[in-house]
C-alpha cells in the first residue's frame, strides 16, 4: 500500500468515525505516514487544544485506528503546533496521566 493510500484511509476514518473533532471546532492533520511499517502520526488542534476530553480523544484514536484499519499498525497522536494551535491548559496534560482516563471510551 502506498503512503498516499494509507493517508487517505486514515483521513477518511477520522472524518467518518471521529466527527466530533471538526464539529466542535477542532481539526486533525496527518503529520507522517510510514507505508512500510504502517505507522501513522496524527495531530489534533484548534478547539481540541483547550478541550478537557482531548486526552481521551487522543487515546481513543491511538487504540481504535489500528484495530479498525488493517494497514495501520501503530498510531502516534500529538497536539498540532503552528498558528492554528491553542495553548493547552496544564490540567489537560495532568489528565493524560490520571488513572480514571486510562480506560475511558468516548462515544465514537
The structure class reads alpha+beta
| Count of domains | 1
Question: How many distinct beta strands?
Answer: 3
Q: Per CATH, which architecture?
A: 2-Layer Sandwich
Order of helices and strands: HHEEHEH
Rounded to the nearest angstrom, the radius of gyration is 13 Å
For this structure, the quaternary state is single chain
Protein name: Thioredoxin-like protein
GO molecular function, one term: iron ion binding
Pfam families: NifU
Organism: Haloferax mucosum ATCC BAA-1512
Question: In words, what does this structure look like?
Answer:
The chain is of the alpha+beta class. It has a single domain (3-101), classed as Fe-S cluster assembly (FSCA) (GMP Synthetase, Chain A, domain 3), CATH 3.30.300. The chain is 38% helix and 21% strand. The chain has helices at residues 3-17, 20-23, 54-68, 90-96, and strands at residues 26-34, 39-46, 74-79. It has a three-stranded mixed β-sheet with strand order 1-2-3. The model is unreliable at 85-89 (pLDDT under 50). Residues 89-108 are annotated as: Disordered. This is Thioredoxin-like protein.
Give a summary of the structure in a few sentences.
By secondary structure, the protein is an alpha+beta fold. 38% of the residues lie in helices and 21% in strands.
Secondary structure topology:
Blueprint: H1 3-17, H2 20-23, E1 26-34, E2 39-46, H3 54-68, E3 74-79, H4 90-96
Parallel strand pairs: 2-3
Antiparallel strand pairs: 1-2
Question: What labels describe this entry?
Answer:
alpha+beta; GMP Synthetase, Chain A, domain 3; 3-stranded mixed sheet
